[in-house]
Design brief:
Oligomer: single chain
Largest sheet: 14 strands, antiparallel, barrel
Shape: elongated
Helix content: under 10%
Strand content: over 45%
Number of helices: 7
Structural class: mainly beta
Strand order of the largest sheet: 2-4-5-10-11-13-14-18-19-21-22-26-27-31
Number of strands: 31
C-alpha cells in the first residue's frame, strides 16, 4: 500500500483500516491459526461461526490476556526523475511498539432441553472479542535537494486568493486548512506581485515577467508515523444443538473502535545560506483594512509539520452459521456476516512551525480542531470450513474466507431529503469501488492431544491484498493515488481505464502460530499461543508529487521522497477458562 501525506478527509486507506478484521480469539483458536469455522466449542470460534457456541456441552467462562509487539524496518528514498530514474532506498531505521491486550472475555451458558432427539440444547453467549489492534511506529530520514514539504504545500495552495489569509474567519471557508495553517506558520509565502505561493525553502527568481521557484540547497528530512488503538466486537450469540449432528447459530455483533494516527515531518537546511527567502504576510489594521507586508530578507533554517487524527467508531452487523457432522470424523461449517453499519466520529488538527536565521520572523500556527461524523458501510464476509477429527488424538482443519471490499461506502450521517447537495463522499466511494476488490484468506490449523490433559497446536494463514490497479488508454499503470490526482480527467473520459486491465496487488500477508493447552479433570483449563504476522511492505510519502517536466511531449513527475517499511507483528495470548 502507498500512502501520501498531507492527508485529511476520508481515503481508501481509511476504508480498509476500519473495515478489515484481524481476530485474535482465544489462545486455543489463535494457536490453530483461527481455522475454526467447522470446529466450535470455544468462545473464540463464535466470531468466525456463530454456530460454534452451540457445540459446547457445558457452560463456560473465559478470559484472555497477552501482548502485541509491532516492528518496522524502514528506509528512505529521496526524490527522483521518473523519466530516467528509480527510487533509491537507503538506511535501516528500526522501530517497535509493544502494548498489552485483552483479546477475549466472555461467558457461554448452555441449557439442556431434556430431549433425546431434535433440539438437545441451546446456548446464549456474551463475548468481547478483539478484532483489530492498531499498533505501528515507523521513522526514517535522509537528504533531499529537489523537493520540499514547503513547496508541496505552496502548490497545494494554488487557487486560494491571497486576501483570504488576513481574514479572521479563514477557517470557515472552503479552502484547505493545510494551506491556511502553512501560511500562518511561515511554511509558505505569498508573492503579491505574481499572485502565487512559494515554499519558504524555495528561492524566488524572476525572468522578464515570469517568476520561478526552486530549491538551491540540501535539506535533512525526518519522517515519523504512529498508529495506535484497537477494535473489539461485542457479541451476543444464540445457538441450538440438533441431534449432536447439526449446530446452528446467530449473532449480533457490535464493533467498537478507538483509533489514533499521527504524522511528524521536519526538514532542516544543511546550510541556511543556500536558502535565501523574503517572507511576506497579511495583516489587518485598526480599521479592518487588510494589507500585505513584505519581511526582511533572511535565510530558511527549517520547519516542522504535525498532523493528528482521532476516530471513535461504533457499528452493528449480524452473522449466521452452521456446523454439520455428516459422518464420523468429518465436520463442515459455514457462516456469513452482513456488512457492518458504522458511525465514525473523527477529529483532526495540524501544527506547524518555521525557523529562520532572523529569529524575529519565526512563526508557529495550529488549525482549530476539526470535528465531523459520518456513516461507513463495511463489506460482507463469508467463511467456509472443513475439519477432520482424529478420534481423541486431535484434529486438522482448513478455512477459506472471502471479503468483497468494493462494496464499501461512506455516506453522510444526516441528510435533509428536501435539500439538493453534492455528495461529499462521491470521490472516495468511486475510488473504493474501482481500486478495492475481493480479499481471500486461507487458514490451516491442527491440534494434537499428546496426553489426555495436554495438547499442542499449530496454524498458518495466507491473505491476499484487496487492492488492485489498472492500465489506462495511454499505457500507464494507474493506482488509486494516480486516479485521485487526475480524477476529473478520468471521470470526464479524457483518460480511460482499459476494460479487463484490473490487476490485483501481489502483496500477501502470512502468519504462523503455535500453542499448547492444559485441561484439568475438573473445570479449569488454560491455553497459551504465539503468532507472528509477516505484513507486506508499505510505502509512505510525506507529500504528493508537485514537480514535473516534459520530454518529447511526455510529462514526467519528479517523484517526491518516500519511506519503505517492512512490517511485522508478534502476538502472545494466555487464556484461562472454567467449565460449569
Amino acid at each position: 500500500m502507498f500512502i501520501a501525506g498531507l492527508a485529511s478527509g476520508q481515503t481508501v486507506s481509511d476504508a480498509l483500516t476500519f473495515g478489515s478484521d484481524n481476530f485474535y480469539g482465544t489462545a486455543r483458536t489463535l494457536g490453530m491459526g483461527n481455522a475454526v469455522t467447522a470446529i466450535g466449542g470455544d468462545l473464540g470460534t463464535i466470531s468466525f461461526n456463530p454456530a460454534g457456541g452451540s457445540v459446547s456441552a457445558f457452560s463456560q467462562f473465559e478470559f484472555s490476556t497477552g501482548w502485541t509487539t509491532s516492528s518496522s524496518i524502514s528506509s528512505y528514498a529521496p526524490s527522483y526523475d521518473s523519466a530516467n530514474q528509480t527510487a533509491n532506498y537507503t538506511g535501516g531505521f528500526d522501530n517497535s511498539k509493544t502494548r498489552m491486550t485483552i483479546p477475549n472475555i466472555g461467558m457461554n451458558l448452555c441449557f439442556e432441553t431434556g430431549k433425546r432427539s431434535g433440539i438437545l440444547s441451546w446456548n446464549f453467549a456474551f463475548v468481547l472479542n478483539r478484532s483489530q489492534t492498531y499498533t505501528q511506529m515507523l521513522s526514517a530520514s535522509g537528504l533531499e535537494n529537489h523537493t520540499s514539504m514547503t513547496g508541496a504545500l505552496a502548490t497545494f495552495a494554488t487557487g486560494m486568493p491571497g486576501t483570504i489569509l488576513g481574514n479572521s474567519n479563514k477557517y470557515d471557508t472552503d479552502y484547505a486548512w493545510n494551506s491556511i495553517v502553512a501560511y500562518d506558520g511561515g511554511l509558505i509565502n505569498y508573492n503579491n506581485d505574481a499572485g502565487t505561493y512559494y515554499g519558504s525553502a524555495e528561492t524566488v527568481t524572476k525572468t522578464g515577467t515570469d517568476y520561478n521557484y526552486e530549491m538551491l540547497g540540501v535539506l535533512k528530512q525526518n519522517i515519523g508515523v504512529t498508529r495506535t488503538g484497537s477494535k473489539n466486537d461485542v457479541v451476543m450469540n444464540y445457538g441450538v444443538n440438533i441431534d449432536n449432528r447439526l449446530f446452528l447459530g446467530a449473532s449480533i455483533n457490535m464493533p467498537i473502535a478507538g483509533y489514533k494516527y499521527s504524522e511528524y515531518y521536519s526538514e532542516t537546511a544543511q546550510d541556511p545560506a543556500d536558502f535565501p527567502v523574503t517572507a511576506g504576510y497579511y495583516s489587518k489594521d485598526d480599521n479592518g483594512a487588510i494589507t500585505y507586508k513584505q519581511g526582511a530578507p533572511t535565510q530558511y533554517v527549517g520547519s516542522t509539520y504535525k498532523y493528528g487524527y482521532v476516530a471513535d467508531v461504533s457499528g452493528i452487523n449480524a452473522q449466521i452459521g452452521f456446523i454439520w457432522l455428516p459422518t464420523s470424523g468429518v465436520r463442515i461449517g459455514a457462516s456469513i456476516k452482513t456488512p457492518t453499519a458504522y458511525t465514525i466520529s473523527e477529529q483532526w488538527y495540524v501544527d506547524v512551525e518555521s525557523e529562520f536565521k532572523d529569529a524575529s520572523q519565526n512563526l508557529d500556527a495550529s488549525t482549530p480542531t476539526a470535528e465531523t461524523s459520518y456513516n461507513y458501510r463495511s463489506p460482507y464476509t463469508a467463511n467456509f470450513g472443513l475439519a477432520y477429527t482424529l478420534g481423541r488424538a486431535g484434529l486438522i482443519s482448513v478455512d477459506y474466507e472471502i471479503t468483497d471490499y468494493s462494496v464499501m461506502k461512506f455516506s453522510q450521517e444526516y441528510v435533509d431529503a428536501s435539500f439538493t447537495y453534492e455528495d461529499p463522499f462521491y470521490r472516495v466511494n468511486r475510488l473504493n469501488k474501482l481500486f478495492c476488490g475481493v480479499q481471500q484468506n486461507l487458514r490451516l490449523g491442527a491440534e494434537f492431544r499428546l496426553l489426555p490433559s495436554f495438547s499442542l497446536r499449530a496454524g498458518f494463514n495466507w491473505s491476499s491484498s484487496p487492492e488492485r490497479h489498472y492500465t489506462d488508454n495511454e499505457g500507464y499503470v494507474i493506482y488509486a493515488a494516480d486516479y485521485d490526482r487526475w480524477f476529473e480527467d478520468y471521470e470526464s473520459g479524457k483518460y480511460k481505464l482499459m476494460d479487463g486491465s484490473a490487476t490485483y496487488s501481489s502483496d500477501k500477508i502470512f502468519s504462523y502460530s503455535f500453542g499448547a493447552g492444559y485441561s484439568s479433570p475438573g473445570s479449569f483449563y488454560a491455553d497459551i499461543a504465539f503468532r507472528r504476522i509477516c505484513l507486506h511492505e508499505s510505502y509512505y510519502s510525506p507529500y504528493s508529487n508537485y514537480l514535473s517536466h516534459t520530454v518529447g511531449g511526455t510529462t514526467y513527475d519528479i517523484v517526491s521522497p518516500s519511506v519503505k517499511s517492512a512490517l511485522s507483528q508478534f502476538d502472545a495470548v494466555l487464556t484461562l477458562g472454567w467449565r460449569f
